[in-house]
Amino acid sequence: IFHQMVFAEVTPAGIKITHSDCNGINDIPEQIGPVVDEAGDIHYFSRIHNDDPTVQYWLKRLGQSLAKHFAYVYKINVDKDRAVLIDFPEGYWMFMHEKEHKDGKKTSVQKYLLGNISIHKSSLLILRINEVSTFAGHTIYKSTNAFMPHLFWLVSDKSNKCKCRSCVCDKMKESMPITPARKAYTSSTRVNNGAKRKSKFSKVQGTIDFSKLEFINFERKQGVTIYRCGEVVWVDVLKMGDKKLTRLAESTSKEIDIRYWPGIILKRTRTQSSNEHEDSTPKTSEDSLSLMEVDTPNTEYGFIGEVGGVPGESFFGSASPSPLAKIKEKDIPTSQHSPEFDDCYVLIPTINCSQHSYPVNDASRLSEDEFFVELFELSEKLELDREALSPWLTHRPNILDPDCDTDNENDESLVRNYVDAVREATLLSQSYTTLNAYQEDVMDYSQMIDMLKQNERRRVKDKIIRTEAILFGNELFCIEDIIRLTPCDIENPTYEDYPDPQYIYLKDICETNNGIQLIGDGLIRRRLVNENDARFITDYEWYRINFPEEEYTIDLGEVAGRFYVDYPDLEEIMGCSRSMTLKERWGGQSFYRTIMNTMNVSPIV
C-alpha cells in the first residue's frame, strides 16, 4: 500500500505523478515561432516527445531521484526497474529552443521543461527575471537538478510551500523591480534577496558603464589539490598494493571498470620534509593529528566534542579560545528556524596547531601529506599519498548504469562489494550537511555598525544563521574556498554586456528563508600565466566582477563543486538535493565511530 500522503503511484511501467500545479493550456502546438526579439535574433520553440533521448534521460533521472526520495522521506522502497517516471506531471512539456543570431553565423540550441504554458497571439515571450528564464511569464526548468526540488514538493502533502528556486523567484517578482542594464547603480549595498547570480543595485547619483568596468585581479594564495577529512574520494586500485583488486582492475573480460574504488578520508597527516623551515620548538604529537584543514597555511579546523569523557574540549585536550566555542543555549535557533539544529555540530578554528610556518608556494609540504582512507564495503584502512586519490566528480564508473551485468564476472564477491560501495558513495553525493551553525551575538550593535560594510551590517543586524563549513555531497566547503558554479548562459547574461560569475570566492555560508546560500565575490578565471609542474591558484588570472562592497548570493542549486587546481576544467556537478545530519550521513557505515573519534564530533547539547 503506497503512502496515503504521497501524490504518486508506482505502476509496473514506472512512477506516475498524480498531482500538478499547472493550469495552462494542454493543446500545445508542435512549433512556436519564428519570433524576432529586440536584438534582431530569431527564436523557435519546438515540442519534444517522449521518444526523444533527452526526454527519456529526464524521466529516468527524475524517477531514480524520486525513488531515493521515497525511501529516505517516506520509507517506501521502489524497485529499480520501476524507478522511472512514466511521464512528466500534467501540464509540463519538453521544448527545444533554437536561437538564430541576426548575423546568421551562430545558432544555439537548448532544451527546457516548461510548465503553465500560455500563448499570446502565437508569439514567443522571453523575459529574464532574477536570472530565471520565463516563457509567457512562467518558469522554464533547464536541468533535472533544477526540477527535482519542485517534483519532490508536487508529490508531498503540500504542508509547506515549495522552496525551489523557481517558486521562490515567482513570489519575489513584485518586490524586485527590473532595472535595465547600463542605468544608474550603486556599489554601496547588496540586497540578499535570494537571486541566483545577480547582484542587485539601487539608483544613486552617477552611472557605471559596465563595458568600461575594470576587473580587479584576484590574488588567492592556495596550494595544490588538497583533500579534507570527511570527503569521499576515488582511490586508484593500482596504487593500493592489493593483489586481488589489482588483478580485478587489470582484467579485460569485465564490463565494470574497477580501476577506482570509493573511500572516505579519515585523517590527514603531515610528513616532515627537508624543505620545511627548521624550528627549534620540538614537534608534538598534536602537530601530526589531522583534522579538517582549510587550504590556507597554519589553519586547521577541529570539532568541539567529548574527549576522554569531558564535554566541550577540543581535539587538543582543552577548549578552543575561539569565540565560536562560547555558544550559549539562548543563541541556538529554535526549531522553527532550523528543524535539524538538534543534530548540528560545532567546528572550531584552531590557528596555532602547526608548529611550522610553510611558504605559501611550497608544493613539497602538500606532496608529503599522507591520507588515511577507508574503502567503502571493504572496511580496509589505507595510508596513501595524494597521487593515489582523485576527487569524486572526476570519475563516473560504468556501474552507475543500471543495465550493467555483473553476474558472469570473476571475483563476484568483490564486484558485488564494488557495486554497493559506489551506490553508497553516490547516495552521499546527493546530500549536504552544515557544520557549526550559529548566530552572531553583537553586544552593542550601535558601536559596531560603523566598523562594518553595509552588506555585513545587514547580516549582523538580522542575526542570520551562519555556518563555518558545509559537506556538499562528497566535498567539504570552507570559508575562503573557490567554488565552481553551474554553467551559465554566456550568450544571455543577467545584465547586458556584463558577465555572470563562473566561480564564487566563499566568504559566508548562511541559512535563510530561501534555504542554504553561499555568499562571496563573483570570479572569472582567465589564462594560465605560470605553467609550473606544481600548480597553484595564483598561476591563473582571477578577476572579481563585483565591487568590494558588493556580494553575490548563490543558492545550492547553482553550485557545482570545489575548484581543484589539478583539475581546472572539471565541469561535473555534484547535484545535492536534500539535507542530512552527520548521523544520517554516516551512521550506518563501518567507519562511523572511527571518523567521529578522529574528527572529534559531538552534537551541541
Please characterize this protein's 3D structure.
It contains eleven helices and 30 strands. α1 (53-74) packs across α2. The longest helix has 22 residues, at 53-74. With 605 residues, it is of the alpha+beta class. The chain has three domains: 8-172, no CATH class; 232-329 and 347-426, no CATH class; 430-597, SH3 type barrels, CATH 2.30.30. The chain is 17% helix and 27% strand. InterPro entries: Clr2, Clr2_N. Residues 84-167 form the Cryptic loci regulator 2 N-terminal domain.
How many beta-strand runs? 30
Main β-sheet: number of strands, strand sense, barrel status? Answer: 11 strands, mixed
Q: What's the pLDDT, averaged over the residues?
A: 66
What is the tally of helical segments? 11
The first-to-last residue Cα distance is 39 Å
Beta-strand percentage range: 25-35%
Label the overall shape.
globular
Structural class: alpha+beta
- Please compute the radius of gyration using only Cα atoms: 25 Å
| Low-confidence runs of at least 5 consecutive residues | 120-137, 171-222, 272-367, 400-408, 441-449, 600-605
Helix content: 10-25%
State the domain count.
3
Pfam families: Clr2_transil
InterPro entries: Clr2, Clr2_N
Region (Disordered): 270-291
Biased composition (Basic and acidic residues): 275-286
Topology overview:
Elements: E1 8-11, E2 14-17, E3 31-36, E4 42-48, H1 53-74, E5 92-100, E6 107-115, E7 126-129, E8 132-135, E9 138-141, H2 144-154, H3 165-172, E10 216-218, E11 232-236, H4 243-250, E12 260-270, H5 285-288, E13 292-293, E14 300-303, E15 305-307, E16 310-313, E17 347-350, H6 364-367, E18 369-375, E19 381-385, E20 389-391, H7 412-428, E21 431-438, H8 445-448, H9 454-462, E22 465-472, E23 475-478, E24 482-485, E25 503-512, E26 515-528, E27 540-544, E28 552-555, E29 559-562, E30 578-579, H10 582-586, H11 592-599
Parallel strand pairs: 21-30
Antiparallel strand pairs: 1-2, 3-4, 4-5, 5-6, 6-9, 7-8, 8-9, 10-27, 11-12, 11-20, 12-18, 13-14, 14-17, 15-16, 18-19, 21-22, 22-23, 22-25, 24-25, 24-29, 25-26, 26-27, 26-28
Helix pairs in contact: 1-2
